[in-house]
Amino acid sequence: MAATGKFSRKREAVLACLRSTTSHPSADWVYQQLKLEYPDMSLGTVYRNLAQCKQRGEIISVGFVNGFERYDARVTPHEHLICRDCGSVEDVFCLTLPEDLDTQVAQRTGAQVDSHALVFYGRCAACRKAADER
Ligand SMILES: [Zn+2]
Ligand SMILES: [Zn+2]
Fold this sequence. Notes:
binds zinc ion
């Protein structure tokens, strides 16, 4: 039982770390934050715990940015903006999307649609500003 407790303690740490930020970090970022406090935590452990959290519905995957999967502890429905220059992932709220979006897709495909994820790609405000000043 001791091993299970330790394992879940690490999962709690990974989850708390993810909940402490809105930056939608990668597994490596989480690992960098936790490795001092948990010297026996490997990057593999972080990946394994992230996968568990995802399976339990405690976090979501936002997708891959520059080859690295990015995670979000905010699990209520919202959209994302990914910057193609710096790789930042921002939350976008309160978009006026058609309420029957899932139904429309279900009708067109004959599938049962449970949820959707909408991602916008472009250049974030900070990168736009930096580009303007060059
Ligand atoms: Zn940017
Ligand atoms: Zn988000």
